[in-house]
Write a structure and sequence with these properties.
By secondary structure, the protein is of the alpha+beta class. The protein has one domain: Sandwich (Jelly Rolls). It has 2 helices and 8 strands. It has a 3-stranded antiparallel sheet, with no helix packed on it. The longest helix has 10 residues. The two termini are 14 Å apart.
Length: 107
Amino acid sequence: MGPGEGPPPHVHTREDGVFHVLEGAFTFWCDGTGTEAGPGAVVALPRGVPHRFWNSGDAPGRLLVPGGFERVFLDVEARGLDDTAAVGVLFAEYGLAFVAPPATETA
């Protein structure tokens, strides 16, 4: 994932999210709280709670997402989706929904 990249704020309806940072620096925002995480960090994001994450470093980063959930990201890339509406339709297939970002969030 390149610098500044990451999904917009969203909610999972089917599963909790668990991210293991392999390389780089990431910011995870969950329900109004931001957390910085680097290599070796593990961050859990509960289902039903608005959240997002992005590469907050200046170099590409890598995350491990257990449970096969990486399929949603691979599917976005494989379909060549680059606009929010199209990604939103795909996200719905995976039980995800976009939410509006809070005024206090920064990327």
